[in-house]
Amino acid sequence: MINLNEILSAFIVLFAVIDVIGAIPLIIAIKEKSPIRPGLAIIFTGIIMISFLFLGEQLLGFIGVDVDSFAVAGSIIMAFIAFEMILGIELFKEDDADTATASVVPLAFPLLAGAGSLTTIISIRAEYEMLSIAIAIMLNMVVIFGVLKSVNKIQRILGPVGTKILNKVFGIILLAIAVKLFSTNAKHLFLN
Q1: With the C-alpha atoms ordered 56, 70, 43, 130, is the resulting torsion angle positive or negative?
Q2: What is this structure's pTM?
């Protein structure tokens, strides 16, 4: 049975964690290095999230990784991306032969389907039905697709100076989120 309240609640939780609006400067930065394909990014993001909904804990357990370790690894990648944004340096080199790479890494993973959103999906399974979460994930994919398709228009509105300022500000915010994600999950690793 479809529960609209559960779907809406799960959608809002995931939307807040994915934070595609806050990721716009990062998406612009990725797009400037390598062309992105919104459709491809959404397909991979959706596959990763839906797979994690049904198989996440088992998959991590199978390879001997707990959720906390996974979150720490994701936070480190997020920190490197934040350093790129803040310092204007290039840590991730893109292969020119494959323009689809940026749509998958770092856009689909770890930016959109990152450690935060994947651990949230596992966490909200205790509160909501799997069907409600799956529908909420798909609704978020529609919103993300709209943002990715509009990124050029958003960039034109912001202009080069606005984009750089937003990039630096959100780089600091992303670094703060990475530090919080790292400290919370590293604490669990060392206390267990």
Answers
A1: positive
A2: 0.74
